[in-house]
Amino acid sequence: MEQTFIMIKPDGVQRGLVGEIIGRFEKKGFSLKGLKLMTVERAFAEKHYADLSAKPFFNGLVEYIISGPVVAMVWEGKNVVVTGRKIIGATNPADSAPGTIRGDYAIDIGRNVIHGSDSVESARKEIALWFPDGTVYWQSSLHPWIYE
Ligand code: ADP
Fold first, then answer.
1. Are 5 and 35 a contacting pair, CB within 8 Å?
2. What is the per-residue pLDDT across 98-140, written as a single tens digit (0 to 9) for each?
3. Separation between Cα atoms, residue 138 and residue 116, nearest integer Å
4. Which of 8, 37, 124, 148 qualifies as a cystine partner to 12, CB 3.0-4.6 A?
5. Domains annotated on the chain, with CATH
């Protein structure tokens, strides 16, 4: 089954959105396979966002991610990478539809509350980076009520 890496950014934690965000993924039917509250070092944040290192906003982005605790998660389910991005909404909250997390809870692109992997390949890399000791193996007893 497909997995994705989801991170509630420091603004999402500070604003008390952890329960709301986890609830949206849970209620959709996705399964939580890894969860931790942590602060990250600058070098770690730079590694996570290495693909964006040439962007003018890179330093500000790294400062933002290291500015407070984040919630790192692994969610599992059919098409969870693409569907997770739909639940999150567009990168710029100004373009995110109401009903999405960013559409409902964010205004500025540099304070957009949540990260989600943008492909199965980046999910694999991000899960390996954030959960080097692996995730939790279990299967929800709701499985037959969610999948046909
Ligand atoms: P996404 O998080 O939707 O996958 P990107 O990978 O393009 O988007 O960018 C990573 C993060 O960098 C965004 O979520 C946002 O916090 C920040 N970011 C992107 N573009 C800008 C920008 N133009 N100005 C400030 N921050 C930005």
1. no
2. 999 999 999 999 999 999 999 999 999 999 999 999 999 999 9
3. 22
4. 8
5. 3-138 (3.30.70.141)
